[in-house]
Specification:
six-stranded mixed sheet, four-stranded antiparallel sheet, 8 helices, 36% helix, binds adenosine-5'-triphosphate, binds magnesium ion
Length: 255
């Protein structure tokens, strides 16, 4: 699985500098969680790593090889998108045997047999808690949380080398989210894919991550283990980010 090196990455949209000389090393097989305020550039960073957009400066390397010019299909990357369609195919059901469907699509494209696809769907849906009664439905007839699970399931149909998850659990209620988080962690350990996981939720970052990157505008302000970020915030931005979160939680549960 690739080690991902980001070297002084720059991305502009028009005159707005969205990624600003961002550098980091994401280790082979690491679960790397990026957390930061709305609009700081998290999704843009994932799109750069996936190859959906090109940087205006700097380099992206997989195992030391520059991939800036490599198209998304050749990077071994799977991305689960944030937002309402999650790159699900709206006209296809979640799953049907011997036919095109959202879950069978990635495997069928690569010529796998219907039997092999059925076995894989069985495993992935059990894992992600996608119940059979959802199989005939199209994405438009699923709740946001159900859509997100199907999107994560679809990304896992072919084990990826690099998995990019953009707030994949944002629409689940907290207890469902805690369960799904455990599944993500377990899946990550099984797949061994280098994973970049984006969230707004600092608690989620601390519970999931090998390392956390706290992102400010367009760059990582601090990268470290959850313990390091909590115990030794690098500067006022990180300290205030952690403290405001802690206080909000404390206030919510105080009488
Ligand atoms: N295609 C685009 N064209 C112009 N501006 C864009 C484009 N995509 C993103 N931006 C701008 O870049 C900035 C960063 O956006 P991005 O989606 O990466 O933020 P984010 O950290 O993922 O935010 P959120 O937490 O709300 O998802 C924002 O100001 C956004 O408006
Ligand atoms: Mg985003």
């Amino acid at each position: 699985m690739p080690r991902i090196s980001l070297r002084r990455l720059v991305k502009r949209f028009g005159r707005q500098l969205v990624i600003s000389e961002l550098s980091a090393e994401i280790e082979d097989g690491e679960l790397f969680v990026v957390v930061g305020p709305t609009g700081c550039g998290k999704t843009t960073l994932l799109r750069l790593v996936a190859g959906l957009i090109k940087p205006d400066g700097g380099e992206i390397l997989f195992n030391g090889e520059r991939v800036n010019e490599l198209p998304p299909s050749e990077r071994g990357v799977r991305m689960v998108f944030q937002g309402h369609d999650y790159a699900l195919l709206p006209h296809l059901p979640v799953y049907r045997a011997r036919g095109w469907s959202n879950l069978s699509f990635p495997l069928r494209l690569r010529g796998r047999t219907w039997e092999a696809i059925r076995d894989r769907v069985g495993k992935v849906t059990a894992r992600m808690g996608i119940r059979r009664e959802l199989f005939p439905r199209r994405p438009g007839a699923l709740s946001e949380g159900q859509k997100q699970r199907v999107a994560v399931g679809k990304a896992l149909m072919l084990p990826p080398k690099v998995l990019l998850l953009d707030e994949p659990l944002a629409h689940l209620d907290p207890p469902a989210r805690a369960k799904a988080r455990e599944e993500v962690r377990r899946l990550h350990e099984e797949l061994g894919a280098t994973t970049v996981y984006v969230t707004h939720d600092l608690a989620e970052a601390f519970l999931l991550a090998d390392r956390v990157a706290v992102m400010g505008e367009g760059r990582f302000v601090q990268v470290g283990t959850p313990r390091e970020i909590k115990g030794r915030p690098a500067n006022a931005f990180v300290r205030e980010f952690v403290e405001s979160y802690r206080q909000a939680l404390r206030r919510a549960f105080s009488s």
